[in-house]
Each structure stands twice: as C-alpha cells, then as structure tokens.
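pls ignore typos typing on phone
zinc ion + seq
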Amino acid sequence: MKDNKNDLVENLIEFSNIDGISGHENDVANLIIRKLKGIKGIEFDRDNLGSLAVIKKGKGGSSAPTISFTAHMDEVGFMVTEITKTGFVKFSAIGGWWGHVLLGQRLKVVNHSGEEIIGIVGSKPPHLLTSSEAKLVLKIKDLFIDFGATSKEELISWGVNIGDQIIPFQETAFQTPNKNRIIGKAYDDRVAIVAGIEMIKRLANTHHYANIIFIGSVQEEVGLRGARTSSYKWTPNIAFAIDVTFAYDTPGMEVKDTKLGTGVALSLFDSSIIANPQLLRYTENIAKKNKIKYTFDGLVGGGTDAGAIHLTKDGVMTMTLSIPSRYMHSHNTMIDIVDLSETIELMVEFSKSVNNKTINELKF
Ligand SMILES: [Zn+2]
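k done
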C-alpha cells in the first residue's frame, strides 16, 4: 500500500459523515477544496450545476491530452414533501431505495441553515400487522418520519421545511476490528471522492505529461446530470467514472470474482455504457504491469456517470473503475481499504503513462 493508510481512513470517515443528497453537494465540494488547497500546480473550477473540477496540468503543455476521473459527490437520501397536521413528515426518495431497509431507522432532516433534526421511520408493531400486511414491502410513499412533534406548527418551529434534504442518520463511520474495512453511509460514491483526492496529492510529486482533471460531479443518483454538464465543460480525451460496484461475497449473493479485497473492478459494461475496448485493454495492461489487483465486472442493472460522459460531443473514450462494496443504498455500506488503495494506484499509474502517442494508438 503506497498511500498513507491513516490519511485514507481519516478521509473515508470525514467524507462519509458529511451530508449531501443530489442537488445539495456544496458541503462535499467545499471539503474537497479544503483537503487539496495549497497543493502546488492545481486549480479549481465549478460548472453551473455545481460540479467541481480539480485541474492538475501536465508537463505536455497545451497540446497534451486530458484525462478526467469523475466521482459523484451526491448520496442517496430523501426530501421533505409534506408535513401533516399532526406533525409527521412524508417524503420522497432521491435516488434508489428499498422500503425494507428503512423501517425503524433513524433519518435526519438537514435544513438550509445546516441545522439537523433526527427522527425515525415509523412502523406498526408486529402485533398489529395482518398476515397480508406482514408480507408486504412498504412503498416509500406510505412511510412517514416521526420527530416527536405534537403538531405541524411545532415541527416547523424546530426548523423542518418542505424541500429540506433528509439523510440516513449514523453517528459516524467506523473501522472494523481488522482495520481494513470501514462501515458508513454514503460510500456510494464518497469512497471514490477519497480516491480522487489521494490521486491528486500523489500526482503533485510525480512527472506526468497529460493534464489530469478530478471531477466531483453532482446529481448522479437522479440521472447522471452533473456528468453531462461537466464533461461538456472540461471535455477530456479519456474519461473514467470512479464508482462503487457490488461485492459478491455475502450469504445469498451469486458467486462472482468481485469481492471485498479483490482490488479494483474493471467494468466491462453496465446498463448505460460498454467500456471502450481499446481503453479497457490498455487499462488492464497498466494494472498487470504494476501488479495492481483487479477483477472484471459487469452490471446488468444500474449505471455510472460514464453513461453520460461517453456521449459528450462526438464521443469520449470512457470506462468505469469500480470499488467493491456491500449494502449499497442503505444506512451502512462496507468497503475495504485495499480496494481503494489499488484503485488509486491504477488511477495514478494510468495518469503517468499517457501522452499524445497513446491517444493515437487507442483511437478508432
Ligand atoms: Zn454511485
């Protein structure tokens, strides 16, 4: 592991604990800026939807190719859509959720002043369920949050407003006793944000010809929206989306190669993109040459920012690098630091390897 493990752990915990559903990513962007400010040779830029670019120019000057690495800053959550007369909150999902993982859980409203109010997703006690009710997975629209308020007026006086963001409540992300695994919210896709930060830090002390852009995109979970505008603004020659994938290693999961601890997953395809074949082989060779652990991954359901990026202008050579995770889109996602570290290594080695000749060789 070439990275400073303590730095990675500290960043993993901080970026899990910070809040930001789709459309509310500014605190995440500011934390990225705080973490990287002062590193020489980098510039920051924003687009009009809020995506952040960290630009690290290479030695190749203005004719050098540009490589982008995009990780989305938003996390899945909810939005307050109704406050009932009796002081309960009805809410809508922002991103994909399954009713099963919500009942009885704590959620918190984060209002526009940054104040937090914690409530619970109410449910009937099992004693009162009919046998047909007990078999149902409740729909989000039938769920409510109970903050303990006695009326609508009281809840509003506590600072809860229609349109506020709702975030899964967790005290803090934490390391498991073997120290390699971390459990926390929002690792989809904050683990990749941590990867981008570490890549920029490592490139600051490294010779690289190509221009490197680390993009923190907005609104991935609701339709790859920040990826579209940011890849238009900072059009790369080669693009990677960095995101999580599934670890196929828990009871009941289909057995596949990609597990916690198996390294970076090279995504062959998902529902929105087929990896550029030349780029895929080139990237695999970089992994082999540098003894980076990797597996191949294919997702029949779901997609990443790569789906929007590769369709920019007349097309961009693109693929996704994935970090295995368990329990995606719930209060607790588990990742393994080894996988993060291998992903960073591949991002850095790839960045160092590219010049104008590489681009010509990879082109159709
Ligand atoms: Zn994601």
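The mean pLDDT is 94. The chain has two domains: 5-75+185-362, 77-168. more later
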